[in-house]
Design goal:
- This protein is an alpha+beta fold and about 900 residues long.
- The protein starts with 12 loop residues before the first strand and ends with a strand.
- Its EC number is 3.2.1.40.
- It is an enzyme of class 3 (hydrolase).
- It comes from Sphingobacterium deserti.
């Protein structure tokens, strides 16, 4: 058995130079762009990238020289014993693939780069490094250990297991140069060395279908070890390995009992090595203080059962059991390239309200995901119960009906005596409010803090405008997106679901990419989707397929192609498409052969325009929203769009012969679609806004009918909807861009700034601090009304950045930037930025009745096509100069009411007379 090597993986080892081209061009930052810690990767040819910073304009890379060395000493001496690219003529700065010697397990690589440009040659960058993980199955010397059955401490009926504690002592007999731990702790683990937790990760590793692939983490122990005796301790929680619900095995996939495989490689200063690994000499117990843990239901902790020093040398473990050898999970072992979760922010309460004796309601003022850390002092055996909810009832109690059967409850039992501090390890909650029941004494705000938990990733986008509601929606979106990053993009963090639904993210993921550096997470999710594909080609609605939902519709599994397209567009990484093209092709053919009717229509749709808003807020009161309205129009329109997507992919991946096939299929489907769904009165299908939007956005409408269809769309929004949308998950993905491309950005702006039902602003008017699952989430039946979802964002954030700010890639991951903002009456200011792989792009425009001021920043090695709202170039100045006098600016043409300029990298300040 060989390990699966993620040949598609994106490794971005980012260098920003420390030398000069001219005095104004320098490299002063060294960091890892896509990997928080490039330690233990399993990509044989990692992708090297760098950013160039310069105070000069129009800087273009013309070549590079990369050195990769096996030691930092060699690198410092300019010896690239692993790879010396030499002076390579190329403008590529974001996807230079390592082409040196083969890299074996554990190999360390140190690298640096210098670039050549139209302005001169840089100095060498500061060094960066990466290391290889364990690349082969046989590299794992240890064996899987655990307890492969229920223990006396487990509650089989409730589906909650007590945590498994394992320990092992070992001795290091020489001075240590380096110590590295490789660990697979399933479902979740915490690693301790000599009583101290190793790393700040939580809820690790990332979830997968463990029968397909298992993520291992690599942790540096070097600062924690020295010659002498040591002790390793590992706590295992259930995670998704032992499923949160066991009662429906036909629906819910479970994998067994928690288990562990790990090894520690120690390199001594004399060059010798030693390996310490899991085997049956380890000891284990389930009698520790974590008496139950479950993602849906919470964690129970009995501090009276604490085992002081359990992970330190000399602990008496005679009462512990001998660890059992257990069956391996079955999946391939893979380095986890996406970041682990961590506590990203602490959130203090905004109020603590006493409801009864020893009972309080704590309000954190913000809906988020994670848990709370509590301080408490009281008698031994006192039970403090923490219950979590997103909102309150009219009488100020927790509203928990929308959690379904998720208990969302943590229990802490005091050991007594001194002040105690506690937070859970193996659960999380989606909440704004916490009920603290049984708290001894008076609970103060300083005694409890909310801990916001999500995947460690950088914020890379900012947006602010003159419209306060637009800004608040952006903020709510940020909180909702972050709350639902859990090693996979989940739908919600609070109820008994939390599943990676594909249908929630075909376009919203694209919008998310402007806010978060989430490329590696979505690359990982693409692999989850690929591995969930059945042999016949079927792709599930949820991936990994923790729920066995293979409904064979087009719009949910089609997200596979949307995400691949987004990743390629934003990063330029062709490996994403090369890796996934065969699986995507297989699914497309599966759906075509299985679900094409005699008239050429793709008939299979499961959900329709999922969760479209009821006609009025009252009409939807108390009604359950999980009704399906399958639509052959939606499935056919999506399939047509995906045919064109595959046509592009086939060319990009050297499968050009498939291009003709996809083009022919698309041409025929377009004809059949119009025959079936076009109405001579100028609309499609049932004449819903979504039906018409899809025909317009996917270019299914014939040219001679386009104007009439546009008029119909406008009529629905303006007259029938009184300026509101009426779209569900499907239509909302395309509404803002369709209206804008039709020349009606004003209508899109009107939709975005409504605060009456249905709208994003209506959610905020009714207390939302994230994004609701339903447009009528305040009145719908509580069975399905999550208050922290992302699916209804649709293409809103894409519209913010691309259409309001004008930050849009035109070619090769922002090598050419398309800056054509919609300057909308009533919106006087937009200020946005985005950290692309090439560097920061920013756009800030302000207008009044007399003039417009537009400041832009273009990163080095990029250029932009800038569309300025002016009738002639003479109305434009930059830095006080006329266009013909400006370095880095070239006039292209005047198009109607806009002047098109091409600008090189640098900062510009345009003034336009109005």
């Amino acid at each position: 058995m060989k390990m699966n090597v993620l040949t598609y993986g994106i490794i971005l080892l980012l260098a920003i130079f420390s030398g000069n081209l001219h005095a104004a061009t320098q490299v002063d930052e060294l960091r890892c762009e896509l990997l928080v810690n490039p330690q233990g990767i399993d990509v044989q040819q990692p992708r090297l990238s760098w950013k160039i910073t310069s105070g000069e304009r129009a800087v273009v890379q013309t070549g590079y020289h990369v050195l990769v060395a096996s030691t930092i000493e060699n690198l410092n001496n300019n010896i690239g014993d692993l790879w010396d690219s030499g002076h390579t003529a190329s403008s590529n700065s974001i996807s230079v693939y390592y082409a040196g010697k083969g890299l074996g397990s554990g190999t360390e690589a140190y690298w640096k780069v210098k670039i050549y440009s139209n302005k001169g040659e840089s100095a060498w960058s500061a060094p960066a490094s990466w290391s290889m993980g364990l690349l082969h199955y046989k590299d794992w010397a240890g064996r899987w250990i655990g307890f492969d059955d229920y223990q006396q401490t487990d509650d089989k009926t409730s589906g909650q297991l007590s945590a498994r504690y394992f320990r092992k002592e070992f001795a290091l007999r020489k001075p240590v140069k380096k110590a590295t731990a490789y660990i697979m702790g399933l479902g979740l683990y915490e690693l301790y060395l000599n009583g101290r937790k190793v790393g700040d990760q939580v809820l690790a590793p990332s979830p997968t279908d463990y029968t397909k692939n298992i993520k291992y983490n690599v942790l540096d122990l070097t600062p924690l070890v020295k010659e002498g005796a040591h002790a390793i301790g590992v706590i295992l929680g259930n995670g998704r390995f032992y499923a949160m619900r066991q009662a429906k095995p036909y629906k819910v996939k479970s994998f067994g009992f928690p288990k562990l495989q790990m090894q520690v490689k120690v390199t001594y200063t004399d060059g010798t090595t030693e390996l310490f690994k899991t085997d049956d000499s380890w000891k284990g117990t389930t009698e520790g203080p974590i008496t139950a843990n479950n993602e849906y239901d919470g964690e129970s902790y009995d501090a009276r059962k604490e085992m002081p020093g359990w992970a330190t040398v000399g602990f008496d473990d005679k009462a512990w059991l001998k660890a059992e050898y257990v069956q391996e999970p079955g999946g391939n072992y893979e380095a986890q390239l996406n970041a682990n979760m961590k506590v990203m922010q602490d959130i203090p309460p905004v109020s603590v309200t006493k409801k009864a004796a020893n009972k309080y309601i704590v309000d954190f003022g913000q809906n988020f995901s994670g848990w709370v850390k509590m301080r408490v002092r009281g008698k031994q055996g006192t039970e403090v119960k923490l219950r979590f909810a997103e909102s309150l009832t009219a009488d100020g109690e927790l509203f928990t009906t929308n959690l379904r059967d998720a208990k969302a409850t943590d229990l802490y039992i005091l050991k007594g005596g001194e002040q105690e501090e506690w937070e859970p390890r193996f659960t999380y909650h989606g909440f704004r409010y916490v009920e603290v029941d049984g708290y001894p004494g008076n609970l103060q705000a300083a005694d409890i803090v909310g801990r916001f938990v999500y995947d460690e990733m950088a914020n890379i986008g900012t947006f602010h405008s003159s419209n306060a509601l637009l800004n608040q929606i952006h903020q709510n979106a940020w909180w909702g997106i972050a709350s639902n990053y859990k090693g996979i993009p989940v739908d919600c963090p609070q109820r008994n679901e939390r599943q990676p639904w594909l249908g929630d993210r075909p376009t919203s993921a694209y919008g998310e990419s402007f806010l978060f550096d989430n490329t590696v997470l979505y690359s990982k999710w693409l692999e989850d989707i690929r591995l969930s594909q059945k042999e016949d080609g079927a792709i599930p609605d949820v991936a990994p397929a923790f729920w066995r939902y293979y409904s064979d519709n087009i719009s949910w599994p089609g997200t596979y192609l949307f995400i691949a397209d987004m990743l390629y567009q934003q990063t330029g990484d062709i490996r994403v498409l090369e890796t996934h093209y065969p699986a995507m092709k297989k699914w497309m053919e599966y759906m075509r052969l299985r679900y094409t009717d005699k008239d050429g229509i793709i008939t299979k749709d499961s959900y329709g325009d999922w969760c479209f808003p009821p006609a009025s807020i009252e009409e939807g009161r108390g009604k359950i929203a999980d009704k399906k309205y399958p639509s052959a129009l939606i499935s056919s329109a999506f399939y047509y769009h995906l045919l064109h997507t595959m046509q592009r992919f086939s060319v990009l991946t050297d499968n050009a012969k498939d291009s003709v096939i996809y083009a022919d299929q698309a041409l025929q489907l377009r004809k059949d679609f119009n025959t079936r769904f076009y109405n001579a009165q100028g609309y499609y299908g049932a004449n819903t806004l979504t039906d018409n939007l899809l025909a317009m956005y996917f270019n299914l409408v014939d040219d001679e009918n386009r104007q009439q269809l546009a008029a119909r769309i406008v009529d629905i929004v303006e007259k029938e909807n009184k300026g509101h949308l009426s779209t569900g998950v499907i239509g909302t993905q395309f509404i803002m861009r369709t209206l804008t491309e039709m020349g009606r950005a004003d209508l899109a702006y009107g939709i975005a700034t409504k605060n009456t039902y249905p709208s994003w602003g209506y959610m905020i008017e009714n207390g939302a601090t994230t994004i609701w699952e339903l447009w009528n989430g305040n009145t719908a039946h509580p069975k399905m009304n999550s208050q922290n979802h992302v699916m209804m964002l649709g293409d809103l954030l894409v519209w913010y950045y691309e259409n309001l700010a004008g930050i849009k890639t035109e070619t090769n991951a922002f090598e050419t930037i398309h800056m054509n903002p919609s300057f909308i009456s009533g919106l006087t200011h937009v200020d946005a930025s985005y950290q692309s792989l090439r560097g920061e792009i920013s756009s800030s425009w302000t207008m009044d009745k007399r003039q417009m001021l537009w400041k832009i920043r273009i990163p080095a090695n990029s250029k932009a096509r800038v569309f300025i709202p002016a009738s002639a170039p003479t109305a434009i100045t930059e830095g006080g100069k006329k266009l013909g006098q400006i370095e880095g600016v070239r006039y292209v043409e005047t198009q109607k009411d806009k002047v098109l300029l091409e600008v090189g990298s640098g900062e510009y300040e345009f003034k336009i007379k109005r």
